[in-house]
Amino acid sequence: MLTTIAQLYKQAYSGLSRNSWYLSVVMFINRSGTMVVPFLSIYCVQELHFSIVQAGTIMAMFGIGSIMGSFFGGKLTDKIGFYDLQVGALLSGGLLFMLLGFLRTYPTLAIGTFILSFCNESFRPANSTAIAHYSSEDNKIRSYSLNRLAVNLGWAFGAATGGLLAAVNYHLLFWVDGCTNILAGVMLLILMPRSKVMFGIKKHVDEANEAISAYKDKVYLAFIFLSTLFGMCFFQFFIMQPVFLKLNWHLGERIIGALMAWNGVMIALIEMIIVHRLEGRRNGLVYIITGVLTGAVGYILFNLLPAGIAAAAVIVTLITLSEILAMPFMNAFWISRCSPTNRGEYAALYSMSWSAAQVTAPFLGSVLIQYGGFYLLWWMLGLISLFAATGYWFLYRYIKTPLTS
């Protein structure tokens, strides 16, 4: 039995390029320092004595900066290549995180947060383009799953460490976050020397002006809209679900933390194996539809199951399976629509859809709860997910060609 399991893991992780592993190492280092953002609103209220509205505005500035950073990051990726932009974003982001800790007035912190987010998020399209560049047709979905694994492990480590540091001194968050950004940039320079990387991508950059714009691809724009809807529902898992479990189901913080950790554990343990087993067997939109519908069932069960740890564990498992099934194949979809010369634009639009979802999700959740409580929220998330799944099904029927090989 143990031999069979070991063989499954070996098969799931084998065949990936060395540079894909390097990019994932860089991503893990970068995300391991993700400490400022999870605690930024608390920092604004408790340390700087801002109002709740001001703290919300600061977070909104971060979201707006993320969207604009993704947009221009995609443009620059197609112009100068993914390597220089990744290094520049990591190094500048590190310095800006350190600087942000010195900004203590509302206007300066709002402006600083926007600039930081703009620079920091320009990294995403470049990184996504790099993963596509170093992936083959046989392993592109697993390459993105490996990167997602690095993101989730890094985020879990950073959030946990950030909580400990915040209890000591909030300013430590800015320094550690900045240092890990810079360390990630230095590791990228060491593991993937510029001369070797730029030699391989110069041809694509020179041809970039001939590429068709992603903003004229109507099928892809429809996909982005549906992905934004899915993202708005998915982010409620991290934003409103913990509040619901605490206030309505009266679960303790330790139980809620364990349930949220289960999400990361599941991704770490089984996503690569599931993707390895599914990759190339069917059209990727089939798995996306299945994932979105699984998430819809999870949200609706909040209104149907009796309150308790067991019910919460079942729902968290379903929503995590939704993420595992949908997100890797969403990455495969945008790669299938682009060429090496316009990957930056396609990656940027995909990143922007998630940034937009992250900005709008708290507003959506709070409005629905205000007018109809959590009961209305869970039903609406189920309906929105069902609508998104139907939209993906129409895309699947329209395209009728394999997208996951």
- How many distinct folded domains? 2
What gap, in angstroms, lies between the N and C termini? Answer: 30 Å
Radius of gyration: 21 Å
Q: Identify the CATH class of the largest domain.
A: Mainly Alpha
**CATH architecture annotation name of the largest domain:** Up-down Bundle
Instruction: Find the count of extended strands (DSSP E, 2+ residues).
Output: 0
Uncertain regions spanning at least 5 consecutive residues: 204-209
CATH fold naming of the largest domain: Growth Hormone, Chain: A
Major beta sheet summary: none
Shape: globular
Average pLDDT confidence is 84
> CATH homologous superfamily name of the largest domain?
MFS general substrate transporter like domains
List keywords for this structure.
single chain, 405 residues, mainly alpha, Growth Hormone, Chain: A, 2 domains, MFS_Transporters, Putative MFS family arabinose efflux permease
Question: What does this protein look like?
Answer:
The chain is mostly helical and 405 residues long. It contains 17 helices and no strands. The chain has helices at 2-13, 18-32, 36-47, 52-80, 82-100, 106-121, 123-133, 140-168, 171-191, 194-206, 218-234, 236-239, 241-247, 253-278, 284-304, 309-337, 343-399. Helix 4 (52-80) runs parallel beside helix 6.
SSE inventory with pairings:
Layout: H1 2-13, H2 18-32, H3 36-47, H4 52-80, H5 82-100, H6 106-121, H7 123-133, H8 140-168, H9 171-191, H10 194-206, H11 218-234, H12 236-239, H13 241-247, H14 253-278, H15 284-304, H16 309-337, H17 343-399
Helix pairs in contact: 1-14, 2-8, 2-9, 3-4, 4-5, 4-6, 4-7, 4-17, 5-6, 5-7, 5-9, 7-17, 8-14, 8-16, 11-17, 14-16, 15-16, 15-17, 16-17
GO molecular function: transmembrane transporter activity
Protein name: Putative MFS family arabinose efflux permease
GO cellular component, one term: plasma membrane
